[in-house]
Amino acid sequence: MLWLLMTTGKCNLRCKYCGGSFDSKTVPYEESYDLDKLKELIEDDRDPTIIFYGGEPLVNYRYIMDVMDRIEFARFGIQTNGVLYKLLPEKYWRRLNVVLLSIDGREHITDAMRGKGVYKRVIEAATYVKNMGIETIARMTVTEKTDIYEDVTHLLEKGLFDKIHWQLNVVWTERWNFIEWARSSYLPGIRKLMDYFMINLERGEVLKIIPFLGVISSHYFPTLRGVACGAGYSSITVSTDGRIISCPIAVNEHWSEIGHINDGFRLVYDDYPEECKDCQYLRYCGGRCLYANKERYWGEDGWREIDQVTKEYLGIVLSEIDRINELVRSNIIKLEDLKYDPTKDSTEVIP
Ligand code: SF4
Ligand code: SF4
Known about the structure:
Layout (H helix, E strand, L loop, with lengths): L1 E5 L28 H9 L5 E5 L7 H10 L4 E6 L9 H4 L4 E5 L4 H8 L3 H14 L3 E8 L5 H11 L4 E6 L9 H25 L7 H11 L14 E4 L4 E3 L11 E4 L3 E2 L8 H4 L4 H4 L4 H5 L4 H20 L2 H9 L22
Parallel strand pairs: 1-2, 1-7, 2-3, 3-4, 4-5, 5-6
Antiparallel strand pairs: 7-8, 8-9, 9-10
The structure holds iron/sulfur cluster (SF4) (2 copies).
The site of one iron/sulfur cluster has 11 residues, from α11.
């Protein structure tokens, strides 16, 4: 199971789509529970992956060291903006299996939303981590400034990221002209990027573009029992105050609370909205995002707009299944190479 450990509610940046730190009353800046209790809970899991999450987890690097000193049997990873990478001693970096770095693509796109100079710092952090042989994942936030083809291929060509993932900047920001941008830029870009993915696949190379690979994996190895991120059933989040929640974004929402460090937790499966139950894409999408389904900040029509774009993107990816079958039959790629488990990486698959 995936354990997202909120290391602190504090962040060292104030990115435009997020605004920076949580209120310390909601997500305190240091943990206030007994780490031995956490260890007891994780010990009951036969295959734990622990991902340090924030705020910005490196702000409280001491917690990361304390957890890693106590728990030896887990896979470890971190979701970080990378800027403070020097704070964590090298021996702890070396124990991480995967490092997810926030970067939005080209330098001017990243710096426009995250702050001047951030791109260079992330590249520096990615180089540091990559040189240790640790797997790296670029985590992009996609906004109206993004050209999805240009920004993803830019990151692939840097040669510093083993996988690329992105999330759309929707629902928890002010509503913007998402559908118009999706039609004129994003969906044509997805088509072009999928063509690029297929050209590489035909040469026997599987590009680790997670929003493509995760969907293709679900076609051949169907496993979803809820949203693709696993929120509530194969992924849980421990907040710094000891609450256990299904989704790391839902730190204030009562529906998200599924337990406490001191009392254990219950898992929640198949929590689909009505709209999803008969959807042809349910086995690939799982309802896209539990949080967005519960908290429809963009209203019902906003939910439908995002859903329309989700369906079109899924249609583009799945339109290549016949060609992929052919490549598997002719031994150009192995089916196993298309298998992807998002809970090992803490990615959501569906943007
Ligand atoms: S595509 Fe839309 S309706 Fe279908 S499962 Fe995903 S969110 Fe639900
Ligand atoms: S995709 Fe949605 S439900 Fe899953 S972790 Fe992200 S915000 Fe939470």
